[in-house]
Design goal:
Layout: H1 10-19, E1 33-38, H2 42-45, H3 60-73, E2 77-82, H4 90-96, H5 114-117, E3 121-125, H6 136-142, E4 147-153, H7 155-168, E5 172-181, H8 185-198, E6 201-203, H9 205-211
Length: 212
């Protein structure tokens, strides 16, 4: 960046929105889209969470507003919840030297998502990729979905991995540059550079919401 703006500030968002790659050949089609909200769990979002991501505080309101717009239109919303599985994915636990368990209250989705639970697709995942062994691709394709809007945490881990996987499943990803958050700005920006090159259309929450 030519100037270092505060991470996820309005200036930072405007700067990134102005210099991203353009993908006019992939117009956003809300009626063919689903909103994927990745791992908005107390573990990552609550200030007392073991893996609290402080910048996530700047994305939650925007994601909730976007979810409300999707719900109003009757469009699919996917809420993922990461739970570690020592039998199927022991490396995940060894890598992070801890585990997110289903019985831990901090593994629950944040309370602000409660109004969306009943009408959303709830996906429990055990790996970075929300499509891996979850049946999510089949569920979305069965609903006629061809595009996914990705938001949540962490930008460079589960959000990026899920976006790459969506592309591999022939779903056009729209990656929310101001609706995802990482622990460090360098991790976030690295993902934006990589994804816009080969895997996703970068978008802001406001741009997507305006077209719902």
């Amino acid at each position: 960046m030519t100037e270092r703006f505060e991470y996820l500030s309005e200036a930072w968002i405007s700067d990134w929105a102005a210099r991203r790659a353009k993908r006019e050949q992939y117009p956003f089609a809300p009626e063919k889209s689903a909103l994927l909200l990745i791992d908005l769990q107390n573990h990552f979002i609550a200030s007392e969470g073991k893996a609290f991501i402080e910048p996530s505080k700047r994305i939650i309101r925007k994601l909730l507003d976007l979810a409300a717009a999707y719900r109003k239109r009757g469009l699919p919303i996917v809420l993922t919840r990461h739970i570690d599985d020592p039998l199927r994915h022991p490396l995940m636990i060894r890598w992070w030297e801890s585990a997110i368990t289903a019985d831990d209250p901090m593994s629950r989705l944040i309370p602000e998502l409660e109004p969306f639970m009943e009408s959303s697709i709830l996906v429990e995942k055990h790996w970075y990729d929300s499509f891996h062994n979850t049946g999510l691709a089949q569920m979305l394709q069965g609903r006629g979905v061809t595009q996914v809007v990705v938001g949540g945490v962490m930008t460079h881990v589960c959000c990026e991995t899920t976006t790459r996987s969506a592309f591999a499943h022939n779903l056009v990803p729209f990656f929310l540059l101001d609706g995802t958050a990482a622990d460090q700005v360098e991790n976030h920006e690295g993902t934006l550079v990589n994804l816009q090159h080969a895997f996703a259309v970068l978008a802001t929450c406001a741009e997507i919401k305006a077209k719902i």
